[in-house]
Fold Glucosylceramidase.
Amino acid sequence: MHAKMKANLQLCLLLLISVFCSPSCAAETLPCRLRETSHGSVCVCTSSYCDYVEMPLLNNGQQIVVISSSQNGLRFKSTDASFDGQDKFVIEDERSTAKSFIAEAIIVEQNRAWLQLATRPALLALNGSVKTVKISVDRSKHYQEISNFGGALTGSVSHILKQLPTDLQDHIYKSYFHSQGIGYNTVRTSIGGCDFDLEPWAYNEQPQNDAQLSNFSSLDARDLLKVEQLQRLKTVASLPALKIMAAAWSAPPWMKTNGRWTGFGQLKLQYYDTWAQYHLKFLDLMEANGMPIWAISTGNEPLNGIIGFFFVHFMSMGWTPRQQAIWLGEHLGPTIRNSAHSQVKIFGNDDQRYTYPGWFRKMRRSRRNSVDYLDGLAVHWYWDDIFGPELIDEIHNEMPNKLLLNTESCLGDKPWQTHGPELGSWERGEHYMRAYLQDLQHNFNGWLDWNLVLDEQGGPNYSHNYVDSPIIVNTTNRAEFYKQPMFYAIGHFSKFLPEKSKRIETSVSGSELTAVGFERPDGNIAVILYNGENAPLDVHFQDTRRGELTMRIPPRSWHTVLYT
Ligand SMILES: *[C@@H]1O[C@H](CO)[C@@H](O)[C@H](O)[C@H]1NC(C)=O
Ligand SMILES: *[C@@H]1O[C@H](CO)[C@@H](O)[C@H](O)[C@H]1NC(C)=O
Ligand SMILES: *[C@@H]1O[C@H](CO)[C@@H](O)[C@H](O)[C@H]1NC(C)=O
Ligand SMILES: CC(=O)N[C@H]1CO[C@H](CO)[C@@H](O)[C@@H]1O
């Protein structure tokens, strides 16, 4: 064949493949396109390029694959090793060699060097020796199983997605939900509006005082758009079994004691049954539109409408534990369980950790059987730095058979934080890493993050409540999005811990390293390691069944160690 013709033919084939295949069926590992940004670095995706990692195949009992991400430029980098008694192996940073670890460790935090010297004198001794931490993994001791990892399709997310070219939207779906992305299996969404919407809204706002909900007979255009986006997501991510969790932020104002979207207001007693029917109608209509709901909660952050209204100015509806026990035990619970949707899971609380364990104890005291309707307990992470996981342990010990899910998390919500993205921030990624590690060590079955994507400002939304998201979309050129370190922090769990992975005993000898280990349904072990120090660390890894090895991991890095 003529060389030019051949070249043209190849080009045609390539184009054909990219037209019909991209990005939904391209099966390949593509590295991150790293870009320096204001606070660190991000991976840049465009319609024609985005980073993906195929799930490593482990072929025999000796093989180990270590997947690594680091402040210094690694993103899901794969390194092979084995338990066959080889010497220490070194995972190297993208932009440094093992030799320059020392220099990197100091340069990274130059402006805060005085602080480190004062609080961590160990740094002075860095040059001489790298610390060794022992970790031992015992798969004979089992704890909880993984059920869900996911994020939220809010009105704001849906609004941003709608504006993007299809290929770029597809890369967002695939990045989060495909096994070559980070393997999410769950989406959280709102029934009516939430704080990340263009305006507050609910079904049947009109006519008022309409206990029969006569005007709630079809899905709102905003939900029809979400359904369309979710259909596309399932196709692109090859995820027919996507799970959807839904929660209401507020009833229409006429059902509430204060007649408003926000502020101190609760559901009027005469509408307790109407509000249960409202949930049932939503389940009916979503199923009728091909998008059945997996779970609902008893309502987003019930305390916002009781005490939180001082600082929360978005849609909310207040509940005390007593009111919720009555509504759940006498209205919502029986309504759902006696309906065609009796299998839909019900989660309670859906509020901050500091409401645990008192919330459920008070519910039980008001109506003994109310909590029996709950399949799971939902917690938001926002005050986890202040309130410890013991609060969760207490309730888990009282109700060990209920699923435990973190159902909302983001950074940038606090007065002392940047309201909005800190593009590329490794520190924000580490914040997530520490939080996921802690929850998984405390019997959580999974975690649903907040907005899947936001714009450069951390919106849009009506309540001027700007926060960060693991993926930020460039809404100026609508041609790029940025995967932040937070995305890779979550991914080290969600990608490698499929549903039914069981936590196993993992113990660590030093505070420099945090770790949690799982046995997956395919029998492989996945251990997530986090080094938050500004220094490399030697990890002496021991598995009761496989043997030992030592690996050196870079400063400020996290890893998933996979082996059979
Ligand atoms: C630090 O390490 C370098 C390179 O290994 C070596 O040349 C130097 O002598 C060391 N300095 C101290 C104070 O140990
Ligand atoms: C039903 O709701 C729609 C908007 O959701 C509204 O435009 C319409 O007026 C309502 N119908 C009645 C009878 O109130
Ligand atoms: C978004 O794209 C515009 C135009 O290409 C560019 O000027 C801007 O820097 C980008 N935003 C970010 C956050 O990179
Ligand atoms: C109050 C407020 O900020 N509203 C904005 C929310 O987002 C939409 C869409 O970008 C804007 O049009 C609104 O001005």
Q: What stands out?
A: The longest strand covers residues 132-145. Residues 3-21 form the longest helix (19 residues).
